[in-house]
Design a protein that fits this description.
Blueprint: H1 4-10, H2 24-35, E1 46-51, H3 54-64, E2 80-86, H4 90-100, H5 104-122, E3 126-130, H6 135-142, E4 149-157, H7 172-175
Antiparallel strand pairs: 1-2, 2-4, 3-4
Helix pairs in contact: 2-5, 3-6
Amino acid sequence: MENFLNLANKRRSVRKYLDKPVDREKIMSCIEAARQAPSAHNVQPWKYLIVDDPELKNKLCDAAFSGVFFVNKFVKRAPVVIVVIAEPDFVANRLGAIVQGLQFYLLDIGASIEHLLLRAAEQGLGTCWLGWYSEQRAKKVLNIPKSKKIASMICLGHPAEEKPKEHHRKKIEDISLFNIYKS
């Protein structure tokens, strides 16, 4: 297994993919990593809908990434789109949101997605975590009930570029504090 910091540094959002399918074994390994993520009261408020059928994936992309969502049209070139469906539990998540003013299920899903992204990177796969899409049109294509919430989408595939460009990160001393908040 790779050193964790090397893996975290290696992971980038990939927007260019090879026209090559992803083995379902690798996809399920990513889902297994996501499944292992921690969640409030171990509720695991997520479902992962994997779209790897090319015809359905293209239909999904045409619906979800058109109009004002066109900036993510690159997703159509990825062989896999993973739709993350929120399954919040009343007590652990909804009641907690009232008391704390924080949607715990979204934190839980974020941790789960990050596990998935890191496992994909470890296997040499590229991903892009998406938040800009037409939820209503995606639900219609995938037959997801109106009562459910799509929390995110992830495209997955073999990167077309050896190494995506570096991203600027703030200095560690600009984001860390000890003991008392100082601006």
